[in-house]
Design goal:
six-stranded mixed β-sheet; 14 strands; single chain; eight-stranded antiparallel β-sheet; mainly beta; 2 helices
């Protein structure tokens, strides 16, 4: 299953006028030993039909240009890519509902051109994280010290998709993040209750 929607337009981030070290690189809160905040650093995204960039919505309106992103494609088999934020806009990156919240920002992240064959709804991780590891058909990423590498899963509900991240084997370990991707049309449900039920210990992701 592939969900490819062309980006209509986006504005390039203003060129930095201050010294280069302040303009480039990653936001300070994304580096060092700070814990990974799932609710502010992990998002569902849309992939352009060219396979060269994705678009995601964040409540943080101040993300810097050149911020590193790791992108996990949740189809079967899963794949990953590393890219950089290159643009932002208040207008939607894709046509149709739902509209992004008025206090949010739409970001464009470019990625290598060899990802045009990747499938599934992309998940974006902001900032520096460990290099993704490909284990058969599955992508894993070490995010939390002392915890198993994160694994990703995608399932369908009646009108959308649930993307989740787990600290270990999906459905049998702790769900660390969840986001709902609205499709706007009926699909055959495949989700288990553990993939969508509220969980106060798990971080909620961006909802489209």
């Amino acid at each position: 299953m592939r969900y490819m929607i062309s980006l209509l337009r986006y504005s390039i981030l203003p060129v930095c006028i201050v010294i280069n070290v302040a303009c480039r690189g990653e936001k300070g809160s994304f580096t060092g030993d700070a814990p990974f905040e799932y609710s502010t650093r992990m998002f569902v995204a849309d992939e352009d039909s060219s396979g060269t960039f994705v678009c995601f919505t964040a409540n943080d309106t101040t993300l810097l240009p050149e911020t590193r992103v790791t992108i996990v494609f949740t189809g079967h088999p899963q794949h990953s890519a590393v890219g950089r934020i290159t643009g932002r806009a208040k207008i939607p990156c894709i046509p149709g509902p739902p509209m992004p919240p008025p206090d949010s920002m739409q970001y464009v992240a470019e990625m290598p051109r060899d990802t045009s064959d990747r499938i599934g709804v992309p998940i974006v991780l902001l900032g520096s994280v460990a290099k993704p590891v490909q284990r058969g058909d599955t992508v894993t990423i070490e995010i939390e010290p002392g915890q198993p590498p994160i694994r990703f899963r995608l399932c369908a509900s009646t009108e959308g998709l649930h993307a989740t991240a787990w600290a270990g084997v999906p459905l049998t370990s702790s769900r660390r993040w969840h986001a709902y991707y609205y499709l706007g049309y009926d699909v055959e449900p495949t989700c288990k209750e553990a993939e969508y039920r509220p969980d106060s210990t798990a971080a909620s992701g961006e909802v489209r």
